[in-house]
What we know:
The protein has 411 residues and is of the alpha/beta class. The chain has three domains: 36-208, Rossmann fold, CATH 3.40.50; 211-293, Helicase, Ruva Protein, domain 3 (Orthogonal Bundle); 298-405, Arc Repressor Mutant, subunit A. It contains 18 helices and eight strands. It has helices spanning 4-12, 36-46, 68-86, 103-112, 125-137, 150-157, 160-166, 168-171, 195-201, 213-227, 237-247, 252-268, 276-296, 300-312, 322-336, 343-356, 381-390, 397-405, and strands at residues 58-62, 90-96, 141-148, 176-184, 204-208, 320-321, 359-365, 371-377. The strands form two sheets. The protein has a five-stranded parallel β-sheet, with helices on both faces. A three-stranded antiparallel β-sheet has the order 6-8-7. Helix 13 (276-296) packs parallel to helix 17 (381-390), helix 14 packs across helix 16 (343-356) and helix 14 (300-312) crosses helix 17. It is globular and about 65 Å long. The model has no long low-confidence stretch (mean pLDDT 87).
Amino acid sequence: MASLDEIFDTVADSRIFKEREKLLPDYIPDKLIHRDKEITRLAHTLAVALRGERPNNVFIYGLTGTGKTAATKLVLRKLAEKAFSRGVKLYVAYVNVRQRDTPYRVMSDIAEAVGVRVPFTGLSTGEVYRRFVLRARKMRGVMIIVLDEIDFLVKKHGDDILYKLVRVNEDLGGNFKVSLIGITNSVSFVENLDPRVKSSLGEEEIVFSPYNAAQLRDILEERAREAFKPGVLDPDVIPLCSALAAREHGDARRALDLLRVAGEIAERRGESRVTRSHVMLARLEIERDRVVDVVKTLPLHSKLVLAAIVEATGGGRRTATTGEVYDLYKQYVSELGLEEVTFRRVSGIIGELDMLGIIRARTVSRGRYGKTRQIELAADPDPVVLVISEDPIISRIAEKLGASHGGSDSV
């Protein structure tokens, strides 16, 4: 085993990376290639803030990793710089509502962006909104509120806070104006909103289409020049990362993660080049880490439904119906002495797991017998079983799951 000094020296004096942070998800470059059209449209919409007018609300949607957040942050950063140079009062509140996952926390972040101090707990969401309005009425300027992954908040808590925010200008005087930007991965999300919210939020809509393999390759080549030392990438590394990510609906974040983790694996091994084999190892490592992180945070009954899907699908070797999954779920609940949830709730959990990318569920018609969902496992079953086995309440269920998929041949 390497000594700590050897580990620290290897990483500190990397033979692989020049600026590793250029590959991290939160890095926003000064230019986003293959997004000129979307960036230009958003910039034109928001530019009226520089003359003190309220920009139209904007709804931005597209699949994961298509540049929605990066493009929005880039435009807002440049807009804020221009506003400062012109002496224009511009306030920006960016809230990722998956991380700030309650209406109270979302509203607290918005209020704090205009100088309202909000305790961690102890107030109602309505009171925080009232304090925000009172403060904003005494101010001049334009505020742009970005609600990233907005669908997560609405699905979990409803659209009450969204309704307040799209109508907030009615509660303010004319000196302070608020514009909203909603960002979502769900292209159908807007259709399920309250019509009053939908008409106000969707004043303008911008769609980010998936990148193709050639576009992903351009993105990776540009970032690689900044992130890696010259000559350390084998010629087929970037094309392979691009091709693998293109299969995942053109996900640039996935492509960048593959490239970064491949470099980290080569660095940990003390090697001087990043090769195709490092990319394939990175793919396995990312998938396992993603699944573990997601499954760990699931509520108890969601884990049980997921366990039932693993068993019903034979560890991903076949599909299962909602009815088959529900029967296994009831069996687990009975064995563990727990109170079961309804079939409708299990169906809802299946939809949530589908949204998280752990499973794939599609509705199929059975003619006169109605409709059902065909469910298949989209993730490696091994990390799923591992997390379930670590949960003290349901750990003994994991023994059945191990038998159902015969160990680990499904990667």
